[in-house]
Amino acid sequence: MTVSDKGWVYGVWYCGTAWTKARLHGEYPATFLKRVYALFPDATRILHCPSGTVNGRGVTVDMVHDGIRVPQIVADAHVLPFKPHSFDLILADPPYSLMDSKIYGVPAFRVPTFMTEAHRVLDPGGYLGILHTYYPSYHGKIWALEGLIAVVTGFLRVTRMFSIFRKLSP
Q1: From CA 69, how far away is CA 82, in angstroms rounded?
Q2: Burial call 55-73: b when 16+ CB within 10 Å, e when fewer
Q3: Which residues share a beta bridge with 73?
Q4: How far is CA 127 from the centre of its chain?
Q5: Model confidence over 96-112: pLDDT tens digits?
Q6: What is the per-residue pLDDT across 45-94, written as a single tens digit (0 to 9) for each?
Q7: Which pLDDT does position 144 carry in this prediction?
Q8: Facing residues of 122 across strands?
Q9: In the CATH scheme, what is the homologous superfamily, with its name and number, of domain 10-167?
Q10: Which of 5, 26, 66, 80 has the least C-beta neighbours within 10 A?
Q11: 99: which residues sit within 8 A by CB, 6+ positions away?
Q12: Regarding beta strands 2-5 and 8-14, do their DSSP bridges make them parallel or antiparallel, or are they unpaired?
Protein backbone atom coordinates (compact mmCIF):
# COMPACT_ATOMS: atom_id res chain seq x y z
CA MET A 1 0.00 0.00 0.00
CA THR A 2 1.17 3.50 -0.80
CA VAL A 3 -0.45 6.57 0.72
CA SER A 4 -0.23 10.09 -0.66
CA ASP A 5 -1.16 12.79 1.82
CA LYS A 6 -0.34 16.53 1.89
CA GLY A 7 2.40 16.16 -0.73
CA TRP A 8 4.02 13.24 1.09
CA VAL A 9 4.15 9.62 -0.11
CA TYR A 10 4.73 6.77 2.29
CA GLY A 11 4.01 3.10 2.62
CA VAL A 12 5.26 -0.45 2.57
CA TRP A 13 5.66 -2.48 -0.60
CA TYR A 14 5.89 -6.23 -0.39
CA CYS A 15 7.87 -7.16 -3.48
CA GLY A 16 8.32 -10.86 -2.93
CA THR A 17 11.17 -12.65 -4.64
CA ALA A 18 9.91 -16.21 -4.26
CA TRP A 19 10.31 -18.23 -7.44
CA THR A 20 12.40 -15.45 -9.00
CA LYS A 21 16.03 -16.27 -9.79
CA ALA A 22 18.26 -13.23 -9.28
CA ARG A 23 20.64 -12.42 -12.12
CA LEU A 24 22.66 -10.00 -9.98
CA HIS A 25 23.17 -9.71 -6.23
CA GLY A 26 20.81 -7.07 -4.82
CA GLU A 27 18.94 -6.29 -8.04
CA TYR A 28 15.54 -4.62 -7.95
CA PRO A 29 12.78 -6.91 -6.68
CA ALA A 30 10.50 -8.22 -9.44
CA THR A 31 7.61 -5.73 -9.12
CA PHE A 32 9.59 -2.74 -7.87
CA LEU A 33 10.01 -0.76 -11.12
CA LYS A 34 6.38 -1.25 -12.12
CA ARG A 35 5.35 0.37 -8.84
CA VAL A 36 7.88 3.20 -9.20
CA TYR A 37 6.71 4.00 -12.73
CA ALA A 38 3.13 4.21 -11.40
CA LEU A 39 4.28 6.94 -8.97
CA PHE A 40 5.78 8.96 -11.84
CA PRO A 41 3.44 8.45 -14.82
CA ASP A 42 4.52 11.70 -16.50
CA ALA A 43 8.26 10.98 -16.38
CA THR A 44 9.66 10.70 -19.90
CA ARG A 45 13.39 11.36 -19.47
CA ILE A 46 14.44 8.69 -16.99
CA LEU A 47 17.96 7.81 -15.88
CA HIS A 48 18.79 4.52 -14.13
CA CYS A 49 22.15 4.94 -12.39
CA PRO A 50 23.68 2.63 -11.40
CA SER A 51 21.45 0.53 -13.60
CA GLY A 52 22.47 -3.03 -12.77
CA THR A 53 20.19 -5.36 -14.75
CA VAL A 54 17.63 -2.69 -15.74
CA ASN A 55 16.74 -2.50 -19.43
CA GLY A 56 13.82 -0.96 -21.24
CA ARG A 57 12.39 2.42 -20.30
CA GLY A 58 15.00 5.15 -19.83
CA VAL A 59 18.76 5.60 -20.14
CA THR A 60 20.93 3.10 -18.28
CA VAL A 61 24.34 3.94 -16.82
CA ASP A 62 26.66 1.60 -14.94
CA MET A 63 30.41 1.26 -14.40
CA VAL A 64 30.42 -2.34 -15.65
CA HIS A 65 29.27 -3.99 -18.88
CA ASP A 66 29.57 -7.73 -18.35
CA GLY A 67 26.67 -9.46 -20.10
CA ILE A 68 24.46 -9.31 -16.99
CA ARG A 69 24.87 -5.58 -16.60
CA VAL A 70 24.38 -4.13 -20.07
CA PRO A 71 24.13 -0.36 -19.63
CA GLN A 72 23.67 1.91 -22.62
CA ILE A 73 26.48 4.07 -21.21
CA VAL A 74 29.46 2.91 -19.16
CA ALA A 75 30.28 5.75 -16.76
CA ASP A 76 30.88 6.64 -13.13
CA ALA A 77 27.73 7.75 -11.27
CA HIS A 78 29.81 10.40 -9.50
CA VAL A 79 30.72 12.13 -12.79
CA LEU A 80 27.82 11.71 -15.22
CA PRO A 81 28.34 12.45 -18.93
CA PHE A 82 25.15 14.52 -19.30
CA LYS A 83 24.32 18.19 -19.63
CA PRO A 84 22.50 19.94 -16.79
CA HIS A 85 18.72 19.44 -16.72
CA SER A 86 18.80 16.29 -18.90
CA PHE A 87 16.32 14.19 -16.89
CA ASP A 88 13.05 14.52 -15.02
CA LEU A 89 13.49 11.29 -13.00
CA ILE A 90 16.60 9.50 -11.74
CA LEU A 91 16.38 6.07 -10.12
CA ALA A 92 19.32 4.59 -8.23
CA ASP A 93 19.97 1.27 -6.51
CA PRO A 94 23.64 1.62 -5.58
CA PRO A 95 25.88 -0.81 -3.70
CA TYR A 96 24.89 -0.47 -0.04
CA SER A 97 28.26 -1.26 1.53
CA LEU A 98 31.95 -1.79 0.80
CA MET A 99 31.27 -5.54 0.69
CA ASP A 100 28.54 -5.00 -1.92
CA SER A 101 30.93 -2.83 -3.95
CA LYS A 102 33.47 -5.65 -3.92
CA ILE A 103 30.80 -8.13 -5.09
CA TYR A 104 29.95 -5.79 -7.98
CA GLY A 105 33.62 -5.12 -8.76
CA VAL A 106 33.30 -1.33 -8.39
CA PRO A 107 34.69 1.33 -6.02
CA ALA A 108 32.66 2.40 -2.99
CA PHE A 109 29.51 4.32 -3.88
CA ARG A 110 29.52 7.82 -2.40
CA VAL A 111 25.86 8.77 -1.95
CA PRO A 112 26.49 12.50 -1.19
CA THR A 113 28.68 12.88 -4.31
CA PHE A 114 26.08 11.07 -6.43
CA MET A 115 23.29 13.27 -5.08
CA THR A 116 25.25 16.38 -6.07
CA GLU A 117 25.70 15.00 -9.57
CA ALA A 118 22.04 13.91 -9.77
CA HIS A 119 21.03 17.44 -8.77
CA ARG A 120 23.07 18.82 -11.67
CA VAL A 121 21.48 16.62 -14.35
CA LEU A 122 17.89 16.80 -13.03
CA ASP A 123 15.34 19.35 -14.20
CA PRO A 124 14.16 21.80 -11.54
CA GLY A 125 11.22 20.01 -9.92
CA GLY A 126 12.57 16.63 -11.08
CA TYR A 127 12.70 13.58 -8.84
CA LEU A 128 15.45 11.37 -7.49
CA GLY A 129 14.52 7.96 -6.10
CA ILE A 130 17.15 6.00 -4.21
CA LEU A 131 16.70 2.42 -3.02
CA HIS A 132 19.06 1.77 -0.11
CA THR A 133 19.17 0.27 3.38
CA TYR A 134 18.61 3.77 4.82
CA TYR A 135 17.38 7.11 3.59
CA PRO A 136 20.28 9.43 2.81
CA SER A 137 20.94 12.76 4.47
CA TYR A 138 20.26 15.70 2.20
CA HIS A 139 20.49 19.48 1.98
CA GLY A 140 17.03 20.92 2.61
CA LYS A 141 17.80 24.01 0.53
CA ILE A 142 18.22 21.99 -2.67
CA TRP A 143 16.16 18.83 -2.02
CA ALA A 144 12.71 18.17 -0.57
CA LEU A 145 12.19 14.70 0.87
CA GLU A 146 8.76 13.78 -0.48
CA GLY A 147 8.46 10.08 0.21
CA LEU A 148 9.71 7.06 2.09
CA ILE A 149 8.56 3.58 1.15
CA ALA A 150 9.80 0.45 2.90
CA VAL A 151 10.52 -2.36 0.41
CA VAL A 152 10.13 -5.82 1.91
CA THR A 153 11.13 -8.87 -0.12
CA GLY A 154 10.60 -11.70 2.35
CA PHE A 155 11.37 -13.03 5.79
CA LEU A 156 14.99 -12.98 6.98
CA ARG A 157 15.77 -10.44 4.23
CA VAL A 158 16.97 -6.86 4.62
CA THR A 159 14.16 -4.33 4.31
CA ARG A 160 15.22 -1.51 2.00
CA MET A 161 14.04 2.09 1.91
CA PHE A 162 12.96 3.85 -1.28
CA SER A 163 13.58 7.55 -0.67
CA ILE A 164 11.99 10.11 -2.99
CA PHE A 165 13.52 13.58 -3.32
CA ARG A 166 12.35 16.53 -5.42
CA LYS A 167 14.92 19.01 -6.73
CA LEU A 168 14.18 22.47 -5.34
CA SER A 169 16.75 24.81 -6.80
CA PRO A 170 18.09 25.12 -10.34
Answers
A1: 20
A2: eeebbbbbbbeeeebbbee
A3: 61
A4: 10
A5: 888 887 887 888 899 99
A6: 999 999 877 787 899 999 888 888 789 999 999 999 999 999 999 999 99
A7: 96
A8: 87
A9: Vaccinia Virus protein VP39 (3.40.50.150)
A10: 5
A11: none
A12: antiparallel
